[in-house]
Each structure stands twice: as C-alpha cells, then as structure tokens.
Amino acid sequence: MQKKNSHSLFGIVQELKKINPFLDLKVGSADTNLKKKFPTIGKILFNVEDVREYMALLKALSPLFVKILKGRIDNATPGKVTQWLGLESILDGKQVVDELKRIG
C-alpha cells in the first residue's frame, strides 16, 4: 500500500484504521512537511562518496542490517549487493562487498 501511495505514513494509517475503523487521519500534508524538515535515508546515505564512510554510516543507522548483509555476503554477487543497497553500479557493489569483508 505504501509503495502505491509513495509514503509509509499511508501504510501506518491503514494499520491504525484496522484498530479503530472510525479514525479519520489525513497524512498527505504531514508527509510533505516531514520531507521538507528531515532528509530521507537515501539522501543521507547517498550523499557520502567514500565506501568506508558509507558503510560506517549504514552500520550506525542500522547495525542489524549490516550484520545481515555480512552474513549473506559470501553467497552474493556484487550485482546482487548493488540491488540490495540501491547503488548505481556493480563497481559500487564490489567496493561494498570488499568493505564488508574488511570489517568482518
């Protein structure tokens, strides 16, 4: 649902409506205002150019995600890592794989 409506607030509101069907929440303006005041995770992560800095930031934001990545890295191609992380090129994915192995 949230993908179709372009924001996660829609999905949250739908879950809240399951609890209270009479709840009438409007989230469109809240979503717009949040985007104006706070950068998205993508803007934070993809603003970094150095792979080590990128991985350190990713680990700080989501250590569990990095732990899961490290657990799957031996069975993944750089192309798959590129897809998982929304990176632009397989070269970026290869650098991330190398960095994940380095921080082991």
Short description:
71% of the residues lie in helices and 0% in strands. It has 104 residues and is mainly alpha-helical. Helix 5 packs across helix 6 (63-72).
Task: Write the SSE topology.
Blueprint (H helix, E strand, L loop, with lengths): L1 H4 L2 H12 L8 H10 L3 H5 L5 H11 L1 H10 L5 H8 L4 H14 L1
Helix pairs in contact: 5-6, 7-8
Summarize the structure in words:
This protein is mostly helical and 104 residues long. It has 2 domains: 2-38, no CATH class; 44-103. Helix content is 71%, strand content 0%. The protein is built from 8 helices and no strands. It has helices at 2-5, 8-19, 28-37, 41-45, 51-61, 63-72, 78-85, 90-103. Helix 5 crosses helix 6 (63-72) and helix 7 packs across helix 8 (90-103). The longest helix is centred in the C-terminal third of the chain and has 14 residues, at 90-103. The radius of gyration is 18 Å and the shape is elongated.
Task: List descriptors.
104 residues; mainly alpha; 2 domains; elongated
Largest sheet: none
Q: Which structural class do you get from the secondary structure elements?
A: mainly alpha
Strand-residue proportion: under 5%
Helix tally equals: 8
Shape: elongated
Mean pLDDT: 78
Q: How far do the termini sit from each other?
A: 37 Å
